[in-house]
Specification:
heterodimer, A: mainly beta, five-stranded antiparallel beta sheet, globular, B: mainly beta, seven-stranded mixed beta sheet, 11 strands, about 0% helix
Chain lengths: ~110, ~110
């Protein structure tokens, strides 16, 4: 049974710092991995999607990597801003299901 | 394009009642998935509809049922509500790889 784990559960960093969020999954037979952002009480916004054959994806200040063989992904956020404060969720797709981690609550201190 | 819309935004019910949540997918999307997100947890997959049929189902009891209409909109029905059904219910639509999420319906069961 696929399990997705995100570490740390919460993180506070000063504005301007670079940071890394971690995600691990137990079964490497995935179609893709996706990083989402969720603001309090809101729906999910897709940030980056990495296909199983890819190693990384970049969008602006965000870079996500995927090491399928070791079951790991990282989300790198450069030059963090207070507006980056949110919960970041990692999710893997297998068959037609998406399986989520519990998320990392990120707080950027002004 | 209005994106994925869900109604109602908030709902309060009592134990034992029944509830129906609604989802309109993004224009052109033919697949709708439903997720339950308890407080502090990642979303959990309930089921997915394609061509008006349930295609995949997560580990949820038969009290949870759904329907997809010819215009691809979908309903989630929950019977005999329990306190533990209190959660944010998210709908996501897709045409291919990427799922687009709606803002969710927050259900409180008293």
């Amino acid at each position: 049974k696929q399990e997705v784990t995100q570490i740390p559960a919460a993180l506070s960093v000063p504005e301007g710092e670079n940071l890394v969020l971690n995600c691990s999954f137990t079964d490497s037979a995935i179609y893709n991995l996706q990083w989402f952002r969720q603001d309090p009480g809101k729906g999910l916004t897709s940030l980056l999607l990495i296909q199983s054959s890819q190693r990384e994806q970049t969008s602006g200040r965000l870079n996500a990597s995927l090491d399928k063989s070791s079951g790991r992904s990282t989300l790198y956020i450069a030059a963090s801003q207070p507006g980056d404060s949110a919960t970041y969720l990692c999710a893997v797709k297998e068959d037609d299901k998406i399986i989520f981690g519990k998320g990392t609550r990120l707080h950027i201190l002004p | 394009d209005a994106g994925v819309t869900q109604s109602p935004t908030h709902l309060i019910k009592t134990r034992g009642q029944q509830v129906t949540l609604r989802c309109s997918p993004k224009s052109g999307h033919d697949t709708v998935s439903w997720y339950q997100q308890a407080l502090g947890q990642g979303p959990q997959f309930i089921f997915q509809y394609y061509e008006e049929e349930e295609r995949q189902r997560g580990n949820f009891p038969d009290r949870f049922s759904g329907h997809q209409f010819p215009n691809y909109s979908s309903e989630l029905n929950v019977n005999a509500l329990l306190l533990g059904d209190s959660a944010l219910y998210l709908c996501a639509s897709s045409l291919s790889e990427t799922q687009y999420f709606g803002p969710g319906t927050r259900l409180l069961v008293l």
